[in-house]
């Protein structure tokens, strides 16, 4: 256990112990590829609409049910990531990678904080739905 901690502290992203399970190795490689694709995705421009939400990405303006909503830069980045998914579930790790640039679940407390803040500012807490054990998604009006 101590060796794994030392390896991770020295800058490694991951560590496998012997005997190595081939299936686990393949899935870890796939996970790294997914994270790399997310981080290298082109920035979103233009307008994103979902339900009552409209985000003017370049102007960094947000409107919900026709009302302008004032968000911090981080809140806006988080909302853009959720809106880009178009109702699909975004994992906690995915959101942390896209919005904060961290790998894994380090800092997931801050994600919870910002989700709570977004729910309060949008004024409709059910619009951002929690998918237990996975992450978050935007809900359509019929889901609320």
Spell out the helices and strands N to C. Answer: HHEEEEHEHHEE
CATH topology of the largest domain: Arc Repressor Mutant, subunit A
In CATH, the architecture of the largest domain is Orthogonal Bundle
Strand order of the largest sheet: 1-2-3-4
DSSP strand content: 15-25%
Q: Output mean pLDDT.
A: 80
Description:
- Helices cover 44% and strands 17% of the residues.
- It is an alpha+beta fold and 144 residues long.
- It folds into two domains: 2-40, no CATH class; 72-143, Winged helix-like DNA-binding domain superfamily/Winged helix DNA-binding domain (Arc Repressor Mutant, subunit A, Orthogonal Bundle).
- The chain has a four-stranded antiparallel beta sheet, covered by helices on one side. Strands 5-7-6 form a three-stranded antiparallel beta sheet.
- β3 (61-64) and β4 (67-69) form a beta hairpin.
- α3 crosses α4 (92-100).
- The longest helix is centred in the N-terminal third of the chain and has 19 residues, at 22-40.
- The mean pLDDT is 80.
- Residues 45-140 form the OmpR/PhoB-type domain.
- It comes from Amycolatopsis pretoriensis.
- Residues 1-33 form the Response regulatory domain.
Short account of what is shown:
One of its GO terms (biological process) is regulation of DNA-templated transcription. It holds the Pfam family Trans_reg_C. Helix content is 44%, strand content 17%.
Write the layout of secondary structure elements.
Elements: H1 2-9, H2 22-40, E1 47-50, E2 53-56, E3 61-64, E4 67-69, H3 73-84, E5 90-91, H4 92-100, H5 108-122, E6 128-131, E7 135-138
Helix pairs in contact: 3-4, 3-5
Keywords: DNA-binding, Phosphoprotein, Transcription, Transcription regulation, Two-component regulatory system
Protein name: Transcriptional regulatory protein, C terminal
Domain Response regulatory: 1-33
